[in-house]
Amino acid sequence: MKAFFKSLYINTLFFILLFSIAVLFIASYFFEDILGATKLLLGFLLVFLFFDIYLLYSNKLGVQGARKLPEKLSNGDENKIEIHAINRYRFTVKIKVIDELPIQFQNRDFNIQSTLKSSQEKKINYTVRPTERGEYYFGNLNIFTSSPIGLIARRRQFSGEAMAPNYPSFLQLKKYDLIAFSNKLKLYGLKKIRKIGQTLEFEHIKEYVIGDDIRDINWKATAKRNQLMINQYQDEKSQPIYSVIDTGRVMKMPFNELSLLDYAINATLVISNIALKKQDKAGMFTFSRKVENMIVAQRRKSQMNRVLETLYNINTDFVESDFSRLYIDIKRTIKQRSLFLLYTNFETLDGLHRQLSYLQAISKTHLLVVIFFENTELTSFLDEEATSTQEIFEKTIAEKFIYEKKMIVNELNKHGIQTILTTPENLTISTINKYLEIKARGLL
Q: Could you report the per-residue pLDDT of 304-336, keeping only the tens digit for each?
């Protein structure tokens, strides 16, 4: 009996009808002729109420449902959740699905309404966008069923609690997997770079086209084919590519609900995969007060799994980053010339100058690319029209900060350090583009 009352819910329609009958009872004090009809209406309401209860509870199975979670969630992406519902009644029912979402989403009014015909099975999909790495616990799946009468609803719970870990964006990994190898790079914002350098690793002979280096013409093959033929060389392989993630306080700034740290983590996952597909060695590490989460650059089958698990478990208290410790650890542990993709953020020239000597020291023995972020909030603020002296003053300050970012790029380039200044949402594309440019120009 307790279970019966816990599953029984009265719909809004019943209260509306009951309130209307109450109004008629009040009116009957002034118009006695309607009292009998009002009592009759109340009787009909109670009869339909009990009949509605009978319809919903006479079938033990009722509406059945189940939730299907992905094995893991992808951070910062829309993840699809499937709900399977099947109607075991002999009549059409209305259902309201309330899934108890993880606490991280802070959504307490989530519900989906639908209709199921007799014996119909339906898939109901919805999406969630997690923005924090970690474990996401889903609660019960609640399905409220109403008959065509619609006075009450019967609640049934399915699936129970379930956990889905939220990993760095592996959906981006799949999206960009073939970009570096396709002929449609421009569609993704990637520019085509003409190769101006090469190794001595011969690949094949091909027909000459305008833009090829005439020094590579194969005269023997040209004589045989009676047309210009040229030697094609492939990029040097097995070069160490390290993603270096600053986990200090400068990476705590949020954009579109994701921190700069999480944008860097997502980009690291993608670029590591592309580097391995390009036959390079992929590695990574993080730093703040010290260097942590070190994965030595290697090219083996399990490397991507190691990178993914390490990125998932990155934790930080966003303290001040120590670039001197970064330089010392790189000098001590990494002897081979490598490409370092350093994800960090500089807001002022003074902030750069405090770390510039360490960046210069790293760039003497390695190819260093400093990747930092545009402040998109300032850009959006500048697009708004100023309506007061105060707003004009604020816009002037904002323009100063934006200009200072460009000065940081110039300062780094002046000291021979490669840079990427990008918006957080374009970080992955910009990093891929820079990596392909470096490979094409043979800079490493």
A: 999 999 999 998 888 999 999 999 999 999 999
What is the token pair recorded at 368?
């260093």
Q: Which of 351, 339, 315, 322 is nearest to 244 (CA)?
A: 339
Give pLDDT tens digits for 164-185.
999 999 888 877 776 655 544 4
DSSP string, 85-143: EEE-SSS-EEEEEEE---GGG---S--EEEEE-TT-EEEEEEEE---S-EEEEE--EEE
The letter for the amino acid at 299 is R
Strand 134-138 versus strand 202-207 pairing type? unpaired
Return the CA Rg of the chain.
32
CA distances in angstroms from 415 to 296, 346, 360, 409, listed in the order given: 28, 16, 7, 10
Among 243, 221, 175, residue whose Cα is nearest residue 420: 243
pTM of the model: 0.80
Separation CA 335–CA 360 (nearest Å): 17
Task: For 176-298, list the strands marked E by DSSP.
Answer: 202-207, 229-233, 240-246, 254-255, 258-259, 281-287, 291-298
Strands (E), 265-377: 281-287, 291-298, 339-343, 367-373
Are β-strands 240-246 and 339-343 bridged in parallel, bridged antiparallel, or unpaired? parallel
Q: Which residues of the chain have pLDDT under 70?
A: 178-203, 233-237
Distance CA 223, CA 425 (A): 52
